[in-house]
Design goal:
Two copies of one chain form a homodimer.
Chain A: E1 4-14, H1 22-27, E2 32-36, H2 41-44, H3 47-57, E3 61-65, H4 74-86, E4 91-96, H5 98-110, H6 118-122, E5 133-137, E6 149-154, E7 159-164, E8 172-175, H7 185-205, H8 212-234, H9 239-252, H10 267-278, H11 283-299, H12 303-314, H13 322-339, H14 356-369, H15 377-385
Parallel strand pairs in A: 1-8, 2-3, 2-4, 4-5, 5-8
Antiparallel strand pairs in A: 6-7
Chain lengths: 388, 388
């Protein structure tokens, strides 16, 4: 284990029927909030009404800021910051999935800053303050509800970059699994893939050879995500399945799985971000394409951990060599992604092979930003060629 | 999964060489602190010097309050509260194991209150405030470094009771595994047993039948504790073994393993506290005696979870019935406790069988306080009779 710091102050309120508590929680921080959400889905399924009723009961004024897109964009973010400033809100309340939460985090930072918010994404400056953020989560996927990161796409520059700051841990996140029962099958599956992706990045890229706590934690979460996703696949409104998937997705990216594993990278994310920057593809769908290819490419170089994954997660029997054992595990993961309804090749998502060079070129921007020095354009193209 | 709330704001700084950071961390909260510790061991192994040097560099004044005992006692706690008040310290810095941390937590509460501190242990009142607490941990065992509970013994009344309050989460805990390399073999083993006890209480007493996340989390931690303890048993100064045991013990009682499992009890602790209230026996040693007996008694009634434990933790093959499979697991755990040097029966600790009635009588006090209604004197005596 390597030296580390860990601190995650977010308060989680989890379970059916917990949304009416958002008013009292918000009241601890502000009397007027910016209410951020996406499209009309939260109005159709009653979540909007529950939130508004709770705010009203707690005597909290709110200004609405709808219209956050999947893969939220910089132009809309700038509008949100301007509104938060002009309305002088004291906090931001995000109601939605990871996109709504991520854009809300950036609004929280931008509202307390006079410069260009994109500076924080470029790493030019670190946030010095932020509005308090509260969230009501409606999708099990990104883990944004219990971490201090967010991703925004600069649509002009085709840059999908992240910001991290201890100031943007949500103060309180309400996780009611029933809100996810109406999420369509494809987006539920993409969320499960996203959650898995968050834990396997560190698991496979750490150079530490003995991490019994962290490895088992990750393997246990993957088992739990797969079991619950399988249940949901059969019965979309199964509460226990939805609850397990939701909590597992939160735990997958709250800092604990990587605590003590030392330096690690997010290469699958660096590569996937280029897919969803160019095509209208969900992040989780892109990951389902990239991950098996990335694993295939990397298991040749460092097969031991991939073989452990195959054996512990998919009960693969020893195939005589770590490479062969690893291959069986990758095959099983890819088959499972396919089974739950995800694309698993570039062609599944109608991405032409001839775009690989363009994608690889774009992905190097993020790889460079994240310090993934081994991920040259050539290396990324090799990975993408395993995704055909 | 059941509804739950989870919030743990403690900042962990983990790893070799991190103690010199205590000054800067403390400075965030106070200019003058009460420095609480136990006996002279921290002076002999250089920890005291590292802490004092760091405080001096950060320009922090300190008042020393040594003399905390294992199983810390109310009379000494009262002295600490009086000293914290008379010296008007702004924070408490605990340097030691769980006993030092627990007494320090109670000092933090008592120093901000004008009434009798024992009221909080009796549940007569809830704390309304507390001094900030910082800790430098020197023993992997209780998990006190990342939770909001503490245990104190009222030596006059032979009551070993706990207090819980969100105000006593440590602000920062520094965990340097090298501080534990000089812990004697027996106390290292008792710490490992204590950590295991913290996770199996919830695991076995929840009534929820499907908890894939929490079950695997617990089973993974037990594996990690056993693997690291086995390494330390062979080589007491193995850094990776010490680091893994230390972090696992922290994670075992930070609230996460029980998040979502619904109502659960700590019956093994309720019973053990009576052992260490009457005899000069370490908490972990008492648990090594109580746990196998408690498991034997309870596995008859509810064998499925005990069989799962046997199969997943000890790779026990199916013995034809859950009760038989469970029995093999209990046998394996007891053998492992013995192997690492713990007493596993009352007679191993020179506790006469004739004292069972007295112990059972005492344990009912805590069982009643904790709402363990099934734990009558007769029931506790039955458990203790399985510990012979």
């Amino acid at each position: 284990m390597q030296n580390f710091e860990f601190c995650n102050p977010t308060k989680i309120i989890f379970g059916e029927g917990t949304i009416p508590r958002i008013g009292e929680e918000t009241k601890k921080y502000a009397k007027k909030v910016l209410l951020v959400y996406g499209k009309s889905s939260i109005k159709n399924n009653g979540i909007y009404d529950q939130v508004v009723t709770s705010l009203q009961k707690a005597d909290i004024a709110f200004v609405e800021f709808p219209g956050v897109k999947s893969n939220p964009v910089l132009t809309h973010l700038r509008e949100g910051i301007a509104l938060a400033k002009s309305e002088a809100v004291g906090a931001v309340l995000a109601v939605g999935g990871g996109s709504v939460l991520d854009e809300s985090k950036a609004i929280c930072i931008g509202a307390k800053d006079d410069g260009d918010v994109w500076d924080f994404f470029l790493g030019k400056r670190d946030a010095q303050d932020a509005l308090p953020l509260l969230t009501v989560l409606t999708l099990a996927a990104t883990g944004s509800e219990m971490n201090c990161g967010g991703v925004i796409t600069n649509e002009e520059l085709k840059q999908k970059f992240n910001v991290n700051s201890p100031y943007i841990f949500p103060k309180t996140s309400i996780l009611d699994p029933t809100t996810t029962c109406t999420v369509p099958a494809d987006y539920t599956a993409y969320g499960a893939v996203d959650a898995i992706s968050h834990i396997i990045e560190g698991y496979f890229t750490t150079s530490d050879k003995w991490l019994p706590i962290q490895d088992r934690y990750v393997e246990g979460l993957i088992h739990s995500i797969m079991e619950s996703m399988n249940i949901i696949h059969e019965n979309p409104s199964d509460y226990q399945g939805r609850a397990t998937l939701m909590w597992a997705a939160t735990l997958a990216l709250n800092g604990l799985p990587i605590a003590g594993i030392g330096p690690c990278g997010f290469p699958n994310h660096a590569i996937e971000h280029s897919l969803s920057a160019f095509y209208d593809i969900a992040h989780g769908a892109g990951l389902a394409i990239v991950i098996p290819g990335w694993m295939t490419h990397n298991s040749q170089k460092n097969p031991a951990k991939f073989a452990q994954f195959a054996q512990r997660v998919f009960d693969v029997a020893d195939q005589g060599s770590p490479v062969a054992t690893a291959a069986k595990g990758i095959e099983a993961l890819k088959a499972w992604f396919k089974k739950i309804g995800c694309p698993v090749t570039l062609s599944d998502a109608d991405i032409p092979e001839t775009d690989i060079e363009k994608l690889a070129d774009n992905a190097t921007m993020l790889a460079t930003k994240w310090g993934l020095t081994a991920y040259t354009k050539e290396e990324i193209a090799k990975v993408l060629n395993c995704c055909k």
